[in-house]
Design a protein that fits this description.
33% of the residues lie in helices and 14% in strands. Strand 5 and strand 6 form a beta hairpin. The N and C termini lie far apart (65 Å). The chain is globular. Helix 2 packs across helix 3 and helix 4 crosses helix 6. The protein folds into two domains: 29 residues; 178 residues, no CATH class. The strands form two sheets. It has a six-stranded antiparallel β-sheet, with helices on one face. By secondary structure, it is of the alpha+beta class.
Length: 210
Amino acid sequence: MKHFFFCFCLFCLIFGYLILSYFHIIPKKSYTNAYFGISDYVSGVDYDGDGIDDQLDILLGARDYVQTKPKYKSKYYSGGYPNDSYGVCTDVVAFAFLASGYHLKEMVSLDIREHPEDYGEDVGDSNIDFRRVRNLNVFFSHHAKILTNDISAISEWQGGDIVVFPNHIAIVSDKRNKKGITYIIHHGGQPVYEEDSLGRYEIIGHYRFP
């Protein structure tokens, strides 16, 4: 009986550790660009004139948004941007850009009007169009620099980049794992918003704006 109880406890400890590790609840060491001899990218643009380069501004905006710990829920808002404690993955991008002076709601709406053939038929409501992954992928393919999807090309990934997956989107973090692969800042209902999970998803788009 004692042997069974010991084995059961050991199993629970190992299983619990694996679960906590998978969801990145257990902190682990992260690395910076400098550790890998990679220079921080500077866009040379400060759109909102706050003294912070847009690349860094977008990164900090994403981080500030997830620090509010929004709960995951897809809702419609008459003003477009969520005004409560809820949000989805696209809101990380929208608020990151808003913190940098860019209003994705208006920008995506304008691009849809100028290039309707690229967006399909399920558009026309500016309050929701910019909160759909597919639309953001089209928008960034029009207006941002298109970069590699190869995560092993670590020097091509910088904090503040945008990365798109099937039905999901994130802002690239300036933190890296021991292989140099960047973390992402995202919201899919997971307990940790900034995590080492870039390699878990199929990547369909990697962009740098502007």
